[in-house]
Design a protein that fits this description.
The structure holds 2 protein chains of 2 kinds.
Chain A: E1 4-11, H1 20-31, H2 36-57, E2 60-67, E3 71-78, H3 86-89, H4 99-103, H5 111-118, E4 121-127, E5 131-139
Antiparallel strand pairs in A: 1-2, 2-3, 3-5, 4-5
Helix pairs in contact in A: 1-2, 2-5
Chain B: H1 4-10, E1 14-17, E2 28-31, H2 35-41, E3 46-50, H3 55-64, E4 68-71, H4 79-88, E5 91-94, H5 99-113
Parallel strand pairs in B: 2-3, 3-4, 4-5
Antiparallel strand pairs in B: 1-5
The chains are: A alpha+beta, B alpha/beta.
Chain lengths: 141, 114
């Protein structure tokens, strides 16, 4: 398989459309014939990240998906508020989500740990006031 | 074997979307109003019981390969949610039962089917 790169834009201001990008990614990976269990892992992890880009970063951003024969690499990049303490953010149950986000069904503080669980390699960098970038790799072979 | 259609009948439910899955098998179930918990804990081929009714419930199911959602307490979702479910091939069932009763009934059915 040759190297393929897809880029998706996530609008930051529309909660009802959050997940559109992840849905397209899922569809594209299916068309490439990626095994279903791997597609499911990528979809869940990217969707968690996409939701974070809308409910926390609030700016939305870009998701890039790179596929080669060995692995799928996803990069989720936003230019939002950033995360002051990554160790805290990565711990299960820690959230800054306000009540209105919880009323929508999110804000259990499980998203980042869950992304880390599903990805074979997980990396997050963030700068307060500048934005957050999450890179995940999923092995194909 | 328990199918999506068996779930609808057992809960005296109304099918709102996704007729395509009625003969599909379901393996387990989970009740949750927090999609965060669904994303973190649910296995595939599960039925999702929920009282939450926004498009992200359908998206969550889509990402997790959940083929059937049961809305409890007689609540009905909006047209946009029904449309999205039809588009994504997710079955929607509405039941008048409360969460506890609905989950309990299906749990008993799973146990007796073993
Ligand atoms: N892209 C982001 N921009 C800014 N802050 C973020 C971003 N992603 C996560 N955070 C911060 O890290 C915290 C933990 O994120 P995580 O996804 O683990 O949980 P959550 O989104 O609060 O709840 P859940 O994911 O369970 O719905 C968030 O509450 C938020 O403070
Ligand atoms: Mg999150």
């Amino acid at each position: 398989m040759e190297n393929l790169t897809f880029t998706y834009t996530v609008p930051g201001d529309d909660f009802t459309r959050a997940g559109d990008a992840s849905s397209k990614i899922k569809k594209n990976l299916r068309e490439l014939g990626i095994p279903p269990a791997i597609i499911r892992a990528v979809a869940i992890a990217v969707y968690e990240g996409e939701i974070n880009m809308v409910i926390h970063a609030k700016t939305g951003g870009d998701i890039t998906v790179d596929v080669n024969e060995k692995q799928i690499t996803t990069v989720l990049k936003d230019t939002g508020c950033g995360i002051p303490d990554l160790t805290l953010a990565m711990s299960e149950g820690w959230t800054t989500a306000p009540d209105e986000v919880r009323a929508l069904g999110f804000g259990a503080g499980m998203g980042l740990p869950n992304m880390k669980k599903y990805a074979d390699i997980f990396d997050i960098t963030s700068e307060v006031g500048k934005g957050t970038t999450v890179t995940m790799k999923f092995n194909l072979a | 074997m328990i199918t999506v259609n068996n779930v609808a009948e057992l809960l005296d439910g109304k099918i709102l979307a996704g007729e395509c899955n009625l003969s599909e098998e379901v393996h387990s179930a989970c009740g949750a109003d927090m999609m965060s918990d669904v994303l973190a804990f649910v296995k595939d081929k599960a039925v999702l019981f929920t009282g939450l009714m926004n498009p992200q419930v359908i998206r969550t199911a889509e990402m997790m390969d959940i083929i059937c959602i049961v809305f409890v307490r007689g609540k009905l979702p909006g047209e946009d949610v029904i449309e999205l479910a039809n588009e994504r091939g997710v079955t929607l069932i509405a039941t008048k039962l409360r969460m506890f009763e609905a989950c309990g009934k299906l749990y008993a059915e799973f146990n007796s089917a073993k």
